[in-house]
Amino acid sequence: MLSELLGIWLGGDELAIIDSHRDSVAVINPKPISTLDFALSKNETEFLLKAGRAAAMRLVFQRKMDSAPTEAEVKAAEDAVEVLRKELTAARACRRHKRLLSLAGLTLFAVLLFWFREYLFSWFPWPLR
Predict the structure, then answer these.
(1) The whole model's pTM is what?
(2) Helix orientation angle between 71-115 and 42-62, rounded to the nearest 10 degrees
(3) Does residue 126 surpass a pLDDT of 80?
(4) Residue 64 lies inside a defined structural domain of this protein
(5) Cα–Cα dist 118/81, whole Å
(6) Tens of pLDDT along 84-97?
(7) C-beta atoms surrounding 9 within 10 Å
(8) Is residue 98 part of a domain?
């Protein structure tokens, strides 16, 4: 077991290993969260935890382990994850639009300031060129 983990850590063939051990790996879909998102909100952290829990529940159910959850419990957990995923996707789109609008506003302000610098700063004792 330890040699397999070490091989995964040192090798770059994670997808091949996951495919070969598909029945014993809980695959988690983290979208819309990227591996480059470092400052996660409380909702994003909760989403990742619930997604991991739902994936683990699915794995335990499929392997028919002792005290495995029922199909209804697994489906309810997966549905809850999908609801959170939609909420996060909408919230992230809203944040992205706000950032783009802020950037567009700052760009417009800078362009207007440049174009009208002669009128705005005509009181300067020296030219602005």
Answers:
(1) 0.67
(2) 150
(3) no
(4) yes
(5) 57
(6) 999 999 999 999 99
(7) 8
(8) yes
Domain span holding position 82:
29-120
Angle 99-103-107 (CA atoms, 0-180°, nearest 5)?
170
Q: Let me know if residue 105 belongs to a domain.
A: yes
Q: Which residues contact 56 (CB under 8 A, 6 or more apart)?
A: 26
Residue 100 has pLDDT above 90, yes or no: yes
Residue 90 falls within a domain, yes or no?
A: yes
CB distance 32 to 85 below 8 Å: yes
Q: Are 69 and 60 in contact (CB under 8 A)?
A: yes
The 3-class SS string of 76-126 reads: HHHHHHHHHHHHHHHHHHHHHHHHHHHHHHHHHHHHHHHHCHHHHCCCCCC
Contact yes or no for 57/70 (Cβ under 8 A): no
**Structural domain count, the chain:** 1
Rounded Cα–Cα distance for residues 39 and 83 (Å): 22
CB 83 within 8 A of CB 51: no
